[in-house]
Amino acid sequence: MPRRATLLQSLALAAFLVQPAFGFEVHKGVGLHEWMNWSPLEADGSYRWPPYQSVEQWLTRYRPLTDWPAADPVARIRAVGFDFVRLTIDPGPLLDSSGPRRDEAIAVIREAASKLIGANLSVVVNLHSISQVPKYGKDVMIAGADSPEIAWYRQMVVDLTRGLLPLDTEKLAIEPFNEPTLYPCEAPQQADWQKVMETQVAAIRAVSQQITIVATGLCAGGVDGLVALKPTFDDPNILYSFHMYEPHVFTHQQPPTEGDYGSGLPWPNGGSTAEQAIAGLRDAMSAAGVPELEQYRQIGAVLPAVQEYFAETWDEARLAARIGEAIAWADRNRIPTSRLFMGEFGVIVQSADKKIGAPEADRSRYIRTARTIAEAHGIPWSVWEYSNPFGMTVIVPEGAAVPDRDLLVALGLAQ
């Protein structure tokens, strides 16, 4: 009798391991960060309840409502050409609640996800820690695999997963962590994060074997963090995330001091030099009437980053090789590349005053290259981000709230 039970258990496990994915299939997505990631606060700094913003509060966070067309704003995301949204959620209100109060917060999230699914969009519900209420920031998820904080966080994720199950799980995924700032990508940090992911996946699977899980590596969720991860917890309904902002000095061109100049680096960088980039900055400052002494100060502040950028070659081959490390990791672990997930990528476009960002042509080249490399290997992608005033946005930041056509072309969503 014991031998029969063991055999039946083995067969059941084998059937689970080889079962086909439940059906969550996505290709072209966009991060939606400004809706559910910022909860209104009370005067004492606590979350207003129920938490999170309404659609109208999201739309008017940075611009008047009259900027937006009358059409359903959620349906417009689908009309642009995206088939899924990576909906970022501040876990703070969930961590700050329990019982019926937590259920109330989960109901708000479920309603938002339901709106998106109703617009024929799949949804990756991403718990995206921020520092709006500091005690619920990123430190909670990197407190250590055996810490009470992680146990507390893990139960919160379980409660959220259970609360989302009434939705169509073929259109839904749960991403428990975003960019864990745990370094370096090796022992003992890697071993600890490995345990965090293993226990989190097991906890979710105890609630649902169908829902898709997005697993994340340490080191801010980049390629290095992914390839350090051991997929010991793998099943067909798991995606493996990496974010692509490399080199960061190009994708996030900003000066150390707000209001200074720190833009204009090209991509690829082989046809230019640090001296030419600095000359372009000097020209922009001179045209704006910045005094020469002030120009020297600002150039001195950005010079190390500019020199760092040109010390290496950054081009299509380098980007392909970097993404190729994630692909090689998947191959080694017999994971289809369609279960990799380029969950964030993007470039700040140069502002009108030329203080921040990459020139439009260079931004487009980078985004088109990253996107086509991913697509060539069947890797779903999510560009950062749908609508904000910070230069990395699908919807233009000012005036009529319409998509940035150059960006859509780079994403393959327009001709």
Q: Helices, strands, pairings?
A:
Elements: H1 2-18, E1 28-32, H2 55-59, H3 73-80, E2 84-89, H4 92-95, H5 99-118, E3 122-127, H6 148-164, E4 172-175, H7 189-205, E5 212-215, H8 223-228, E6 238-244, H9 248-251, H10 274-287, H11 292-310, H12 316-332, E7 340-345, H13 360-376, E8 381-383, H14 405-410
Parallel strand pairs: 1-2, 1-8, 2-3, 3-4, 4-5, 5-6, 6-7
Helix pairs in contact: 5-6, 6-7, 10-11, 12-13
In short:
This protein has 14 helices and eight strands.
Elements, N to C (H/E): HEHHEHHEHEHEHEHHHHEHEH
CATH class: Alpha Beta
Low-confidence stretches: 1-21
**Helicity level:** 40-55%
What would CATH call the architecture? Answer: Alpha-Beta Barrel
Trace the largest sheet across and list its strands.
Answer: 7-6-5-4-3-2-1-8
Based on Cα principal axes, name the global outline.
Answer: globular
Structure description:
It contains 14 helices and eight strands. It is of the alpha/beta class and 415 residues long. It has a single domain (20-253, 315-410), classed as TIM Barrel, CATH 3.20.20.80. Strands 7-6-5-4-3-2-1-8 form an eight-stranded parallel beta sheet. Mean pLDDT is 94; it is low at 1-21.
Features:
415 residues, TIM Barrel, eight-stranded parallel β-sheet, disordered N terminus
